[in-house]
């Protein structure tokens, strides 16, 4: 723990103006971002007697070793810069609502020639109309199923649509009247778009017009004695009314408003939001957060507004935003919301009438959400703390290992040897920190040697970054001059207080300095944060290899252990016998979770590499031949066999293929053995396609696999030798 007085700036050095400040830990990682109307007054609150601070604030200031700030012109700019930095740095001590963008929306893709109605999650896309969010995807599908009777808009995927157009036969929905079948030209593109716009109008709240129109058409059909058509229209009206009943009118003045309620205790807070459009509740969502510092309800509301409306693709700001408490001060937030909407926004506390009654309903939902959350997490929080304490006690550590890294090696009979690194912080997986490696110093199967290589590469990068922490430059940081644009585009001055100088002494707060540890965007390099415990998947040989790699690098402050899967034994370096933890031990259970996650992540990457190798072909070895021209060649000749029989002149006829490339293609195909479409033409040379963003050839890829970091990739390749995998 650090003494806050060691990096406390002098009061006269801190400007008495609006700005945003950042606390950094010993590894230069940003751990807290805040804003203030007066930086001098706000920062002084952090450097009072530790006994008078909130427990979480005390933990934050003792974890930090430096503080820096950026001066801006107005409080609105401070609000915007604070939000952008929280999103960029993901500080561990900031209020972060656990909203992972997973709430489903009903989306209409008006940016396509034939708009499609579907369920969408994640970030919003330009040209798509969104309705919601909804609590469950099935609620969207129920609503859509009712409305397709009246608005038979396309709901099929692009592949189904193309297949129907090719065969001239619509899908089942087209036959039962729940799709107008534009794929087979039963309806023109213009008429289908008009149908989609009517669907959007109904979902936007203009329901009465469509119901009255159908009632009029039903009456006309009855007068003309077309009773079957009248019966269908009657059923359509019933479907619309049933869909309308799912979102009853709550505000009789057809208001567009968002209602935000907060339920909190000393440790956590739950936020519930009701989205009201056209007087009807169109969606609901909820967040829960840990209160890492002493914070008011108004400040929680402010953070919720940032989360809700801060993204460029975030929710549209309605005309009214009703809250339980106003931020202090409220004017910058009001101005920011007005700027996001483009017109006036009423941010207020409802006092009476329907809006007050609806706010009470939202508050009850927030209270219930907090109770449910605490019921689910109470045991989880206790269990995680006990597990970390048990691990520290069993391994003889001085303190609980708050950051654990686990490594595993995976291969298929010695081919496609890869390794994984997973990270658990405070007992929870931190998937953004996952990394994956390809073994490249040797060929074949050797788990011990592979483990030694991976540990060496990971901590060699850590030491390289650590050595550069003392290399402080006198060059000015972007935005160091008053009024100049900062690194994030915000005006102001960035200054660092308490940062060590070249000789290790505290630097002059008035002199800007930049650590080469940080990337250009200011975030720590990916391997700059060390663990307290390294876990390897394996027994004594793997543990010895990991310990030897750390010893060779001169690292003696990181504990190492291994977990052997056969008997779930914990192996320590230089111990002849394993450590056997009780089967009921929470510490053993946490180690198992960490080990299994590393195994899963390594196996997922190994399968991706294997599938990629199986799908490779002779054209992959032609230098300068990209995927576009490969496809053009196959399309022109029809198959690789016909391309192999073609002459150089015939290949040159393909657009974009010159004579030099054609000769290279001919040579590559002449040397390849035509063994079918899935030929591995690898030469045996160890390839390393894992190059870092800056071009280094020993870099490791982050754990991103198509979805959220750390998720496995489905390759679609058959796996009939899964039993041989490790």
Automatic annotation (TrEMBL):
Annotated compartments: Cytoplasm
Keyword Cytoplasm: yes
Residue stretches of biased makeup (Acidic residues): 689-701
Keywords in alphabetical order: Cytoplasm, DNA damage, DNA excision, DNA repair, Excision nuclease, SOS response
GIY-YIG domain boundaries: 16-95
Region span, Disordered: 467-524, 689-726
Keyword Cytoplasm set for record: yes
Annotated SUPFAM superfamilies: C-terminal UvrC-binding domain of UvrB (SSF46600), GIY-YIG endonuclease (SSF82771), RuvA domain 2-like (SSF47781)
Residues covered by the UvrC family homology region profile domain: 259-550
Residue ranges the record marks as coiled coil: none
Domain of life: Bacteria
Pfam family, one: UvrC_RNaseH_dom
Main location: cytoplasm
Domain UVR: 208-243
Compositionally biased spans, kind Low complexity: 487-510
Family the UniProt entry places it in: Belongs to the UvrC family.
Complex formation: Interacts with UvrB in an incision complex.
Function description: The UvrABC repair system catalyzes the recognition and processing of DNA lesions. UvrC both incises the 5' and 3' sides of the lesion. The N-terminal half is responsible for the 3' incision and the C-terminal half is responsible for the 5' incision.
Protein name per the record: UvrABC system protein C
Species in which this protein is naturally found: Streptomyces prasinus
Organism phylogeny: Bacteria, Bacillati, Actinomycetota, Actinomycetes, Kitasatosporales
Gene designation: uvrC
């Amino acid at each position: 723990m650090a003494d806050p007085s060691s990096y406390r700036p002098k009061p006269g050095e801190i400007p008495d103006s609006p700005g945003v400040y950042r606390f950094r830990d010993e590894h230069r990682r940003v751990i807290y971002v805040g804003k203030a109307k007066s930086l001098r007054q706000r920062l002084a609150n952090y450097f009072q007697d530790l006994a008078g601070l909130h427990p979480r604030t005390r933990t934050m200031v003792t974890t930090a070793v430096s503080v820096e700030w950026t001066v801006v012109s107005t409080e609105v700019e401070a609000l915007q810069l604070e939000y952008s930095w929280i999103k960029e740095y993901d500080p561990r001590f900031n209020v972060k609502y656990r909203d992972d963008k997973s709430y489903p929306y009903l989306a209409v893709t008006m940016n396509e020639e034939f708009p499609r109605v579907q369920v969408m999650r994640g970030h919003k896309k330009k040209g798509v109309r969104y309705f919601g969010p909804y609590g469950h995807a099935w609620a969207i599908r129920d609503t859509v199923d009712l409305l397709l009777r009246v608005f038979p808009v396309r709901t099929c995927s692009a592949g189904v649509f193309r297949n129907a157009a090719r065969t001239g036969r619509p899908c089942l929905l087209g036959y039962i009247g729940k799709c107008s079948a534009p794929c087979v030209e039963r309806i023109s593109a213009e008429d289908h778009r008009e149908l989609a716009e009517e669907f959007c109008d109904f979902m936007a709240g203009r329901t009465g017009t469509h119901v009255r129109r159908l009632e009029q058409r039903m009456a006309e059909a009855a007068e003309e004695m077309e009773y079957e058509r009248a019966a269908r229209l009657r059923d359509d009206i019933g479907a619309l009314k049933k869909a309308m009943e799912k979102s009853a009118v709550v505000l009789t003045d057809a208001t567009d408003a968002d209602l935000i309620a907060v339920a909190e205790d000393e440790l956590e807070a739950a936020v519930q939001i009701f989205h009201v459009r056209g007087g009807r509740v169109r969606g609901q969502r909820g967040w829960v957060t840990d209160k890492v510092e002493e914070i008011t309800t108004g400040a929680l509301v402010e953070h919720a507004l940032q989360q809700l409306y801060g993204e460029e693709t975030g929710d549209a700001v309605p005309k009214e935003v009703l809250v339980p408490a106003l931020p202090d001060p409220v004017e910058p937030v009001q101005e920011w919301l007005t700027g996001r909407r483009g017109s006036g926004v009423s941010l207020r506390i409802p006092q009476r009438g329907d809006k007050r009654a609806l706010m009470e309903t939202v508050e009850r939902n927030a209270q219930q959400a907090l109770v449910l959350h605490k019921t689910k997490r109470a045991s989880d929080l206790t269990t995680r703390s006990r597990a970390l304490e048990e691990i520290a006690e069993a391994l003889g550590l001085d303190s609980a290992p708050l950051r654990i890294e686990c490594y595993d090696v995976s291969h298929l009979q010695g081919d496609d040897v890869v390794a994984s690194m997973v990270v658990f912080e405070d007992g929870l997986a931190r998937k953004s920190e996952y990394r994956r490696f390809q073994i490249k110093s040797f060929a074949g199967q050797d788990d011990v040697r592979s483990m030694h290589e991976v540990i060496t590469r990971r901590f060699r990068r850590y030491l390289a970054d650590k050595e550069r922490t003392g290399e402080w430059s006198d060059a000015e940081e972007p935005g160091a001059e008053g009024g100049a644009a900062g690194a994030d585009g915000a005006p102001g001055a960035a200054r660092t207080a308490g940062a060590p100088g070249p000789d290790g002494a505290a630097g002059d707060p008035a002199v800007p300095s930049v650590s080469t540890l940080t990337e250009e965007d200011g975030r720590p390099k990916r391997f700059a944060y060390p663990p307290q415990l390294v876990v390897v998947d394996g027994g004594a040989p793997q543990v010895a290899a990991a310990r030897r790699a750390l010893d060779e690098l001169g690292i003696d402050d990181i504990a190492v252990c291994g977990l052997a899967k056969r008997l779930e034994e914990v192996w320590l370096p230089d111990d002849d016998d394993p450590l056997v933890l009780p089967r009921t031990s929470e510490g053993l259970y946490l180690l198992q979770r960490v080990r299994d996650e590393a195994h899963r992540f390594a196996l997922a990457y190994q399968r991706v590499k294997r599938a990629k190798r199986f799908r490779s072909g002779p054209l992959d070895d032609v230098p300068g031949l990209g995927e576009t021209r490969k496809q053009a060649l196959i399309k022109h000749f029809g198959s690789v066999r016909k391309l192999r029989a073609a002459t150089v002149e015939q290949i040159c006829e393909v657009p974009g293929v010159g004579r030099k490339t054609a000769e290279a293609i001919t040579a590559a195909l002449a040397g390849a053995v035509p063994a079918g479409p899935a030929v591995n033409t690898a030469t045996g040379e160890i390839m390393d396609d894992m190059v870092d963003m800056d071009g280094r050839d020993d870099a490791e890829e982050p754990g991103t696999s198509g979805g959220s970091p750390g998720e496995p990739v489905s390759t679609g390749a058959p796996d009939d030798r899964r039993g041989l995998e490790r």
